[in-house]
Here is the input.
Amino acid sequence: MSELNDESSTPDEAPVIDLSKAPGERAAWDRPRIVVYLWAVAELVFVTNAWQISSSLRVRVLRLFGAEIGEGVIYRPRTRVKFPWKLHIGARSWIGEGVWIHNQDHVYIGSDVSISQETMITTGSHAHRTDMALIMRPVTIEDGAWITSRCMILGGVTIGRSALVGPMTVVKQDVEPNSVIGQGDVKNLGRRFPARRTSRSTGGQA
Here is the structure.
């Protein structure tokens, strides 16, 4: 009977947070309302639009709204960017179709990075035990990394230089440089590139 009378909360008794009072709805904007609204239209017409096939036009529009994008970047259709003024991409990187960069905080993507189809990068979360206030943390993806298809990269992580993230992996902690990670508990599956062997002196012989 003591177990039945346990005073711990049951699921039906759990508190419910009034979302209308949650702080931070516009805390991430960092621009006047008119700029945010204009970007919403430009994104739909020039960036997300599958009929708009020009990567260079897509990049120019993103730059117009404050994105920092290096030379030679390939930016595919059906992509989304929450706030281009918080997007930084190095040279020669590839952004695949359907990639969603929900960057309420800054996203830093290095040079020669490949982000494959349908991957999502999100920098925002909520204080789920208190008032659902917006929590924002940046994401950094270093040079040479490959984020394969349908991954999810969560705020606050750094993906190291030349790391490889396998398909459908949720990344919620830092990834070591030159490592390969997969699904589940983000177990390190090994090295992406083998260690370089240093040549030994042969005493001048050919």
Notes: Residues 33-47 form the longest helix (15 residues). The first strand starts at residue 68 and ends at 69. Helices lie at 33-47, 55-64.
